[in-house]
Specification:
By secondary structure, the chain is α+β, with helices and mostly antiparallel strands. The chain has one domain (17-160). The chain has helices spanning 5-15, 53-70, 149-160, and strands at 30-37, 40-46, 75-91, 95-105, 108-118, 122-137, 147-148. Strands 1-2-6-3-7 form a five-stranded antiparallel β-sheet. Helix 2 crosses helix 3 (149-160). The longest helix is centred in the middle third of the chain and has 18 residues, at 53-70. The protein is rod-shaped.
């Protein structure tokens, strides 16, 4: 069975019609992490075209806080951060439809035809990406700015209506 490109495009648009939710990375985006050391992680959040930069940044911060708490730490420091957007374009399929009518009288034929063309529009998409490289601490480090993981988790869960897990 062959899927028509227009059907596939409509399905993709329907599935990604909402901002990326707070979830592990999936088809529409989400978070992931890589452990770089005993207490060092790189946390990434990839949003879809309906996700704001603020939401992507907040979800990266939320996942950073959750990782800190999951590993028995209380605070984290962001030692490197990157926020950018991945841009792409797509063009809708172009279709044409012609309707015609004709009639004859004697040796003459008369007719008219109308062709309507739709589609062919190009859309630009911008998908936000946010990355934090974090170091975890058992207590608030002295002499440097740090985030209180429990506070960040609670605040962002409240902001986005997520449950504390």
């Amino acid at each position: 069975m062959k899927i028509k490109p227009a059907v596939l495009l409509c399905t993709l648009i329907f599935l990604s019609g909402c901002a990326t939710s707070y979830q592990r990375v999936a088809f529409t985006g989400g978070y992931s992490e890589t452990r770089l050391g005993e207490n060092v992680f790189r946390v990434v959040f990839k949003g879809n075209a309906y996700t704001s930069r603020e939401r992507a940044s907040d979800f990266t911060l939320l996942r950073s806080a959750e990782l800190t708490l999951e590993h028995g730490y209380t605070h984290f420091v962001i030692i490197d951060a990157e926020n950018y957007s991945k841009t792409s374009t797509y063009t809708t399929p172009r279709t044409s439809s012609t309707t015609a009518s004709a009639y004859g009288s004697g040796n003459y034929a008369y007719g008219s035809a109308t062709t309507t063309t739709t589609g062919g529009e190009t859309h630009n998409l911008s998908k936000p990406r946010s990355t934090n490289t974090i170091v975890l601490f058992k207590e608030k480090p002295i002499g440097t700015f740090s985030y209180d993981a429990g506070f960040i988790r609670d605040e962002l869960n409240t902001k986005y209506g997520l449950g504390n897990e």
